[in-house]
Amino acid sequence: MEHQLFVYNTLTRKKELFKPLHEGRVGMYVCGPTVYGDAHLGHARPAITFDILFRYLQHLGYKVRYVRNITDVGHLEHDADEGEDKVAKKARLEQLEPMEVVQHYLNRYHKAMEALNVMPPSIEPHASGHIIEQIKLVEDILANGYAYESEGSVYFDVEKYNRDHRYGKLSGRNLDDVLNTSRDNLDGQSEKRNPVDFALWKKAQPEHIMRWPSPWSDGFPGWHCECTAMGKKYLGAHFDIHGGGMDLVFPHHECEIAQSVASQGDDMVRYWMHNNMITINGQKMGKSYNNFINLSEFFAGSHPLLEQAYSPMTIRFFILQAHYRSTVDFGNEALQASEKGLQRLLEAWENLGRIAPAESSSVNISGLRAKCYEAMNDDLNTPIVISHLFDAARIINQATDKKATLSAADLAELKEVFSVFLFDILGMQAQQSGDNSGREEAFGKVVDMLLEQRAIAKANKDWATSDKIRNELAALGFEIKDTKEGCTWRLNK
Fold this sequence. Notes:
Elements: E1 6-9, E2 14-17, E3 25-30, H1 41-59, E4 63-68, H2 86-94, H3 98-115, H4 131-143, E5 147-150, E6 153-156, H5 158-164, H6 175-182, E7 199-203, E8 219-221, H7 223-235, E9 239-245, H8 249-264, E10 269-275, E11 278-280, E12 283-284, H9 295-300, H10 312-320, E13 328-330, H11 332-352, H12 368-377, H13 382-400, H14 408-425, H15 436-459, H16 463-475, E14 478-483, E15 486-491
Parallel strand pairs: 3-4, 3-9, 9-10, 11-13
Antiparallel strand pairs: 1-2, 5-6, 6-7, 7-8, 11-12, 14-15
Helix pairs in contact: 1-10, 2-3, 4-7, 4-8, 7-8, 10-11, 11-13, 12-13, 13-14, 15-16
């Protein structure tokens, strides 16, 4: 490959040159949502972060298999091994089938992702559709001696595993520290030999409606099993990238590594990548904190914390103005600044088509494309790419105001840079979602206003003006009909 892409590997805590296991092909797995409620800004960030990586890898010529799962079973309250299944609880409260809850929120998640211009993954497997693979994973871990059965449930033996390998290498936690923080949480978990052990399979209580037969009990898989089993099924025993939010490093991804090593002898994943959190007044945004704003509330401006509605493209741009590994603190001022900034870039793009080429350029744009690639190759540094696009927009605006000149070659170069980086890689859209209805309404009013002028001209027997308006509208594709009740029009598309 012509470009050398460096990505930050959470496991090694450094930027590394990206080299796929199989030349020209990339396997990427990203933890998707647990679908028991509407997607919020915290869900948008990993979706957009790994959408950028997906887009850029494809732009570099790689064939990418991108797997993003749907968790629809086994994710218990507080990410623990006890309590109610999040989906099942929602179903019980709303008196629905669990899969009705899943489908409803999955449809809404997909709609929100489409509005944000997030490309769909190559495969979107559901945890509930891969129970067989998860049972096989548990059997392999048991056979290798790193798990034990207890009262119909199966738990991972973390202390035994830690003697042979290192539990905590991804998060940097020491097992003694983990033990000390979890000893207080052993109430009601007497099935476990150790408080730090995590469930691979849980025996279902009589009231638990989501259950499957297994060699140990009628029950359901542990949350951590799902991604390990589905990653292996669709990407193989070893694959390139595993991504997700930083809040998943421990325990979810730490447990994934342990399961992988315990079942097959080594970690399946080469590069572990994590986006940072979105905060509100410094506190993580999430359902468990009760401070989250749904994406639909952003798009409609219907949350008390919002001063106005923000379009999906404004949200996307806001997230990309920060590096994916830095925190983003939500605020109306920051979102309004993003809205203005994006508008500035989109106006510059529109102005590009209006600039007449000069014989030579009075400004220097050489190296712009190389600088954008350099930023992307440095661990997807989207804020730096955006800053280069702002520099280009300033030059375009100078040329629009006749304060600078641009040659045909430089105009073509600017168009190419905007097309590739702003639209193809950053995934922005010139036509912002939600604008259509407003534009069409305004557009209709302009046509009505012209026809009013034509009616006045006809009343004054000014046939030349009347015919001119009709003919020019016809040339633009408008069909005008004069009736007894007045004039009607329609656009022939």
